[in-house]
Amino acid sequence: MSPTTGRDSGPAAAELLDFVRRVAADAAVVASLPLDPEGRTWISLDGPGDSEAWLIGWPPGSGTGWHDHADSIGAFTVAAGALREFSLAARLPTDGWRTLELTDGIDRSRELATGRGRAFGRHHVHEVLNESATEHAVSVHAYYPPLPRIRRYSRTGSVLRLEQIESPEDWQ
C-alpha cells in the first residue's frame, strides 16, 4: 500500500467508473456481445491497471441474487436497457458470521437507465436485476483487484444469510 493514498497502485473506484462509462458508450463493443434469451452472457474486457472487466448481457427478468465482491472495489454502467440495484447502506462484518438481522432503514434501491452507473467500495452487498419483462439490458463492470471471491447471500425479510463463498475457478 502507498503510505500517501492508503491503497495499492491499482485504479481507484472513480477510474473504474470512468472506464465502464467509456466502454458503455462504445456502440461497437456493446453490439459485440451475443445475447441469450435464457441466461446472462458475458465477455471479458481489458480493464485499466490490471483490473478485471466484463461486458454482461441480462435477459428479461434475470438477476444476480444478493452478493458482494469481497475485497474488491468496483463500478458498473448500463450500456443498454435498465437495471435495478438493491443494496445495503451499511458496512457488514467481513468474516465470522453466517446470519445477520438487518436494521430498519438500511435498504437502498436505484434504477440505472442507459448511461447511468455507479462505483462502490469493498464489501458492498447488493443485488442487480433486469426487471424488464421484454427487453435485454447490457452493462459494463470493472473490479480491482481482480475478484478474489464472491460471497453469495439469501435474504428473507430482514435476515441476511451467507450461503456460499465462490472463488474465480467457480465461475470461469
- How many strands, what sense, and barrel or not for the largest sheet? 5 strands, antiparallel
In what range is the share of β-strand residues? 35-45%
Radius of gyration: 16 Å
So how many helices? 3
Report the helical percentage. 10-25%
Task: Describe the 3D structure.
The chain is mainly beta and 172 residues long. The chain has one domain (13-171): Jelly Rolls (Sandwich). Helix content is 12%, strand content 42%. It contains three helices and twelve strands, in the order H-H-E-E-E-E-E-E-E-E-E-E-E-E-H. It has a five-stranded antiparallel beta sheet with strand order 1-2-10-4-8, covered by helices on one side. The chain has a four-stranded antiparallel beta sheet with strand order 3-11-12-6. Strands 7-5-9 form a three-stranded antiparallel beta sheet, with no helix packed on it. 28% of the residues are buried. The model is unreliable at 1-6 (pLDDT under 50).
Secondary-structure topology with pairs:
Layout: H1 13-24, H2 27-31, E1 41-46, E2 52-58, E3 66-68, E4 73-80, E5 82-88, E6 99-101, E7 107-113, E8 117-120, E9 126-129, E10 137-144, E11 150-156, E12 159-166, H3 168-171
Key structural traits:
172 residues, mainly beta, Jelly Rolls, five-stranded antiparallel sheet, four-stranded antiparallel sheet, disordered N terminus
